[in-house]
């Protein structure tokens, strides 16, 4: 049973560019959440997708957007990259109902130069 | 913002020692969940335990145990007979169902180093 997978593993971009990160949830999960983890910090909630709609959003600007596909996979898009966007981006999947634990992928390390 | 606080930045122990990681949370919700996750150097967050706000019974699972006290808003995590493989960053998190979603709020983590 495959867990949560993310691609790419590492990414280097320059300021002002745009980036797309991808996530495939754990088999049987229908909800995908994205988190940003700066170095030495805990993960910060970006947004959550269910039934192809954004259900909840954290305190992140509109430069951060996402999408969920019918197969439950998801993308995170970041426009007009800033140096401060350099971080580990974690995708987590879960079941929609109740307080189910979220299972995390290995993350994508984004470096903005 | 309702915070999760992990006051211990870094803890170093010798193998086989017991170690307790502290977590204090803020919440205005009556229904919530608390979690502990482990993040080894590889970076992937690994789920360890979950406790709901209605159940203050403390449990033991193998070498792991936890102490949940609503009166003090604390959710401490203990590793018994620590091993070198336990070395990682440990995060406490609170989950709340709001706005149709169940986001997690994490603490800043405690770096645990277990040495021989």
Describe it for me?
The complex is a heterodimer of chains A (113) and B (116). With 113 residues, chain A is an all-beta fold. Helix content of chain A is 0%, strand content 50%. Chain A is built from no helices and 11 strands. In chain A, the strands form 2 sheets. In chain A, strands 2, 4, 5, 6, 9, 10 and 11 form a 7-stranded mixed sheet that branches. Chain A has a 4-stranded antiparallel sheet with strand order 1-3-8-7, with no helix packed on it. In chain A, a hairpin with a 2-residue loop joins strand 5 and strand 6 (53-57). The radius of gyration of chain A is 13 Å and the shape is globular. In chain B, the strands form 3 sheets. In chain B, strands 2, 5, 6, 10, 11 and 12 form a 6-stranded mixed sheet that branches. Chain B has a 4-stranded antiparallel sheet with strand order 3-9-8-7, with no helix packed on it. A two-stranded antiparallel ribbon of chain B has the order 1-4. Chain B has 116 residues and is mainly β. In chain B, a hairpin with a 2-residue loop joins strand 10 and strand 11 (101-106). Chain A binds chain B through residues 31, 33, 35, 40-45, 48, 50, 55-56, 58, 88, 90, 92, 94, 98-107, 109, and chain B through 4, 32-33, 35, 37, 42-47, 50, 52, 91, 93, 95, 97-109.
């Amino acid at each position: 049973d495959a867990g949560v997978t993310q691609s790419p593993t590492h990414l280097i971009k320059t300021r002002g560019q745009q980036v797309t990160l991808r996530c495939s949830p754990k088999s049987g999960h229908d909800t995908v959440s994205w988190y940003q983890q700066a170095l030495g910090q805990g993960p910060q909630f970006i947004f959550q997708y269910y039934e192809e709609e954004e259900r909840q959003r954290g305190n992140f600007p509109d430069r951060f957007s996402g999408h969920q596909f019918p197969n439950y996979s998801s993308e995170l898009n970041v426009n007009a990259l800033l140096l401060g966007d350099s971080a580990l981006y974690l995708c987590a999947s879960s079941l929609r109902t109740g307080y189910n634990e979220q299972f995390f992928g290995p993350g994508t390390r984004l470096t903005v130069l | 913002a309702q915070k999760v606080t992990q006051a211990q930045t870094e803890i170093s122990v010798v193998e086989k020692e017991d170690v307790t990681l502290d977590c204090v949370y803020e919440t205005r919700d009556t229904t919530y969940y608390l979690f502990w996750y482990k993040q080894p150097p590889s970076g992937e967050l690994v789920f360890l335990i979950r406790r709901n706000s209605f159940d203050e019974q403390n449990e033991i699972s193998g070498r792991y145990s936890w102490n949940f006290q609503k009166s003090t808003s604390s959710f401490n995590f203990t590793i018994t007979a620590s091993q070198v493989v336990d070395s990682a960053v440990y995060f406490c998190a609170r989950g709340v169902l709001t706005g149709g979603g169940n986001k997690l709020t994490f603490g800043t983590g405690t770096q645990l180093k277990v040495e021989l």
